[in-house]
Write a structure and sequence with these properties.
- This protein has four helices and five strands; from the N terminus they run ααααβββββ.
- The chain is of the alpha+beta class.
- The protein has two domains: 30 residues; 142 residues, Muramoyl-pentapeptide Carboxypeptidase, domain 1 (Orthogonal Bundle).
- Strand 2 and strand 3 form a beta hairpin.
- The longest helix has 22 residues.
- The chain starts with 5 loop residues before the first helix and ends in a 9-residue tail after the last strand.
Length: 184
């Protein structure tokens, strides 16, 4: 292909870069997030939670990911060891014995291995309950807004331009980090 001037070459290069960027953004697989320090993803949002790290009494025990998981337990109306329903007071970002017990009950209800460890299969099942994916442009950044639709409650979750997921807890937006805890 012979281009006669610099402007034509630059135009074709710009169009090519735009198309390549669009395809990469739309088709990129989700990335493993525990190593990133956050629940994160890229491309489409439907599979972002399919490759998350492990959260349990032995792994990322005190973290915002534990807090996000506890919000999921609340949304699902999961049953605690004392027979009560998991509620807002239980959402503290500490994956202790109560959270482990409640996780086992939910895993059993979902037809998963009830080991009390939130790993790939459990996160994948939770991710399948994300609905109403839409995005908004906020300060020149694309932010995806989804709803976690549990069997009892729903709550919004967000994926920012960098791929990091966040959620509201105690009326504050919290990044779903593996290695720190800012939840109450």
């Amino acid at each position: 292909m012979n281009f006669r001037n610099t402007r034509a070459r630059l135009t074709v290069a710009a169009i090519g870069a735009t198309v390549a960027g669009t395809l990469a953004f739309g088709a990129a697989p989700a990335s493993a997030a525990a190593s990133n320090g956050y629940v994160s993803g890229s491309g489409y949002t439907y599979d972002d939670w399919n490759d998350e790290g492990t959260v349990s009494t032995a792994s990322h025990t005190k973290s915002n990911v534990s807090c996000l998981w506890q919000k999921i337990l609340w949304a699902e109306g999961a049953t605690e060891s004392d027979g009560s329903t998991y509620d807002d007071a239980d959402v503290d970002g500490v994956f202790g014995s109560n959270t482990k017990y409640t996780t086992k009950k939910l895993q059993s209800r979902w037809g998963l291995t009830a080991d009390g460890i939130v790993g790939k299969k459990t996160f994948t099942k939770a991710g399948s309950k994300l609905t109403n994916s839409r995005y908004v442009n906020y300060d020149s950044n694309r932010v995806y807004i989804l709803t976690y639709k549990g069997s009892k409650h729903s709550f919004p979750v967000y994926r920012g331009q960098t791929g990091k997921w966040s959620f509201y807890e105690s009326n504050k937006l919290r990044a779903a980090g593996y290695d720190y805890r800012s939840c109450a």
